[in-house]
Recover the amino acids of this structure.
């Protein structure tokens, strides 16, 4: 009876050890960073081998117990000497098998615990690495968002017309504050009564007013510039081709925003022979309210300008509206600017245009005029023509 109880205890112990192998161990305060997937796999392999050794040892112990029980059953009430020897041998074999089983089960417990602990460590390490990757991605996303916000803040907003929504006052002309140039037709000449010829009764009705006849020597007025008519005609009726904030490069490498350029300022020009040289500005012209286009380049830079302003491509001068562009650069042949063109930059390289976008808003625009001697300058790092001074 004692032998059967002992066998049951051994069986339950081995089965319980197998169950321990399947239960994840908890691990507190371990250094998860020293664990790798390879060490986890090795520990699991060793634990599985120990479980198999325990199974084989249990089978041997069960067989030894069965042999001992069979001899004891055959012995009966009286045991002869030979049977007693066999029983002692069987009991010894069972004891050895039981000790071996206990040793293997202990080894199984240790290796199972090690495998479970390493698996927990590895899961902790994987979670730590995943958290680091999430933090790195979040930091990169935050940096990209900050850069995008900074770039957006640096670009003028186009939702509403600048001129109408700002406190900008058009410059006065010759001190008379005429309000700047605009495209209203010139006022019609005042009516002049016909001079008397011969005698009149004094009762004849005045003749109906007739508009004056145009003559070949009297050009049609295009601009009503008020008291500053001569000034506007000389400088192209205000002209100006770049929005406020456009950077103009100086010969020393510094830059000044276009609206801050003054007469006699020096700007960097191109001599068409591969060299950048200093040139002097004669005047800054301004137009208070016009539509502009945004040119976006492959290097992410932008240029906001009017459709008539010529820019220098690898194929020569071109503008969005070449007919009007030819008036701004009367000495040059001006072609049609397209999104396939490359604009010469300050380093002498051609930078490809990605897009040309019309902006549905009006802006105050500016341009250096009479840039001597080569009549060009660099705006936002790209070679552009100056505003022509008309005689």
């Amino acid at each position: 009876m004692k032998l059967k109880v002992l066998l049951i205890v051994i069986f339950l112990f081995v089965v319980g050890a197998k169950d321990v192998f399947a239960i994840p161990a908890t691990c507190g305060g371990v250094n998860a960073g020293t664990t790798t997937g390879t060490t986890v796999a090795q520990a699991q392999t060793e634990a599985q081998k120990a479980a198999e050794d325990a199974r084989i040892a249990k089978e041997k112990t069960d067989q030894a117990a069965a042999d001992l029980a069979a001899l004891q059953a055959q012995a009966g009430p009286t045991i002869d000497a030979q049977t007693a020897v066999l029983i002692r041998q069987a009991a010894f074999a069972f004891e050895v098998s039981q000790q071996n089983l206990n040793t293997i089960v202990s080894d199984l417990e240790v290796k199972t615990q090690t495998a479970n602990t390493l698996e927990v460590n590895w899961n902790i390490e994987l979670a730590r690495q995943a958290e680091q990757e999430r933090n790195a991605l979040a930091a990169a996303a935050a940096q990209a968002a900050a850069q995008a916000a900074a770039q957006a803040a640096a670009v003028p907003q186009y939702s509403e017309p600048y001129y109408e929504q700002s406190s900008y006052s058009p410059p006065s002309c010759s001190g008379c504050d005429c309000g700047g140039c605009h495209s209203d037709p010139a006022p019609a000449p005042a009516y002049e009564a016909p001079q008397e010829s011969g005698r009149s009764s004094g009762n004849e009705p005045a003749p109906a007013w007739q508009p004056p006849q145009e003559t070949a020597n009297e050009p049609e007025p295009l601009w009503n510039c008020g008291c500053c008519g001569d000034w506007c005609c000389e400088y192209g009726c205000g002209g100006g081709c770049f929005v406020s904030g456009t950077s103009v490069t100086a010969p020393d490498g510094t830059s000044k925003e276009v609206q801050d350029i003054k007469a006699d300022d020096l700007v960097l020009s191109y001599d068409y022979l591969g060299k950048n040289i200093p040139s002097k500005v004669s005047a800054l012209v301004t137009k208070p309210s016009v539509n502009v286009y945004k040119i976006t380049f492959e290097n992410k830079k932008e240029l906001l300008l009017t459709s008539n302003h010529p820019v220098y491509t690898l194929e020569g001068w071109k503008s969005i509206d070449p007919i009007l562009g030819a008036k701004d650069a009367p000495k040059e042949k001006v072609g049609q600017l397209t999104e396939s063109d490359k604009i010469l930059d300050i380093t002498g390289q051609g930078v490809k245009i990605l897009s040309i976008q019309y902006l549905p808003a009006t802006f105050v625009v500016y341009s250096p005029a009479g840039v001597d001697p080569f009549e060009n300058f660099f705006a936002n790092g790209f070679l552009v023509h100056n505003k022509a001074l008309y005689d």
